[in-house]
Here is the input.
Amino acid sequence: MGSGRDEGRMAQMVTALARLTALAGGVVLVVLVVLTSVSVSGRALAGLGFGPVAGDFELVEIGTAFAIFCFLPWCHLTGGHARVDLLAERLGPAAGRLLGLFADGLMLAAAVLIAWRLWLGMLDKLAYHETTFIREIPLWWAYAASLAGAGVFVVVAAWCLWRSFAGPARRAAVPVD
Here is the structure.
């Protein structure tokens, strides 16, 4: 398995990577709020020679997709996703641990599937040189940006599965506060 020191370092690296990815998603969302505000204000001031930001909806779509994929790793690492614990509460700690292991395995499978499909989508958009309609942004850029977050999600999901497999004593090694 490895020493506790190595595991602690790995936990810190995974946590830092997930945190950095989530912060990148947050920065993009703030930029999108400013962009949307400027665009809406431009529409309201159209009589004064201003106008909306061209292709604002395209930028919002791309940025929102990127942000979502950036938030997934942190959400999974900290257990921030929705869970239904009706069954786990009644089965006891051993069964709860087994259910947690199963759920983390399913999350890793979902993360790998998402990353794989984004990879294939990116290759497809690259091969056909598809762009957005107004700004003519290559669509593969959006897929590549989202794939970066999905790749971190795979790493975090693999770490969480290993952490669940290693047991409750190992779970405390992840400093997410």
In short: Confidence is low (pLDDT under 50) at residues 169-174.
